[in-house]
Amino acid sequence: MDKTLNAVIQIRKGEDPGPDGKKMVENCELNDEGRIAKLARRYKFDEHQLPWKDLNALGLDKETLFNNHCMGELLKGRITSTALPISKEINGEKKDLGEACFMCVKGADGKPPAANPFKDARVREAMSIAVNRPGLVRGVMRGKALPTGTIVSHAVFGWNEEIGAAPKFDLKRAKALLKEAGYEKGFSFTIDTPNNRWVNDEAIVKALASMWAKIGLKVSVHSMPRAQYFPKVLSFDTSACLVGWGSTTLDAYRPLQSLSATYNPATGDGISNVGRASSAELDAVLKRLAVSEEIGERRGLAEEALAIEKKGVYHIPLLEPQISWVMKKSVDAPLRPDNTLVLDRVRVNE
Length: 350
Description:
The protein is an alpha/beta fold. Helices cover 40% and strands 11% of the residues. The protein has helices spanning 2-12, 18-26, 32-43, 52-57, 62-67, 71-75, 121-129, 133-140, 161-164, 171-181, 201-213, 226-233, 253-259, 280-291, 295-312, and strands at residues 86-90, 93-98, 106-107, 145-147, 187-194, 218-224, 240-241, 319-321, 331-332, 347-348. The strands form four sheets. Strands 3, 5, 6 and 7 form a four-stranded mixed β-sheet that branches. Strands 1-2 form a two-stranded antiparallel sheet. A two-stranded antiparallel ribbon has the order 4-8. Helix 1 packs across helix 2. The longest helix is centred in the C-terminal third of the chain and has 18 residues, at 295-312.
């Protein structure tokens, strides 16, 4: 293991690990140590960067992590809340050490918190109402957006004014909710964002970090090109991230099924549910919505699903961008809400 990791580290530093080292890295998918080396190479982490003293205090050593298949997650910078339960054999008896905890989120003391704060609805609500959405629209989007309180646009079937209403900006209540949840002194985390995918994407996230700082949250912004961003977040290698979504069917089902349904790779549900939120109530409504054909029933189910999503604060909706197209006066092209140019609908007036 050590030789393989050292070879990976040398390569990351631009050094030559020699023919044996290169061979170990090239064959890195053939065994556990190799898979770990591959992760270390991809995510630029190595075992020497890990807080082994803190981990040992929790009863987590390298052998335990290997046996529980969690070392790869640790080398990516964290042990995720979705990792397998950790167990260890002590004096011939297998002991359950509980669920692995988030290592990428840190408390005010700089140490990992006892629990993942994002699992607490009070924390999520606090973060949502600490966002000054009109300020984002005015200061970042230069008026080319609308504040929103849901994950779909007003053009999508299932949207209504109550669901779409943006949460009221309220720093005082946000601080009170964090205090009630046990995070009066705040905590720190990293948020990922692309810098070339959506209009003002990186600027939006930097503004969010500034807003959340006002309630005691220390947020580091990790910006990257879209080519790196999507493989990272869609492999659930993130604590928080910026998400943009449109519905090509102009129906609420597809965004909800992908963003909010419980993650299930076998069915394709929740494939973009990066936070791994899960609601049995929402899943049940979505199953009915998937097969409903009667328009009145379908509208009711879509509204119910969006209401559950909003109440649970499974996402923090920010704004609905407004699309800007430029064309000559002699050109007439219908502006679709999905930002798609349909060429056979374009007219050129002589």
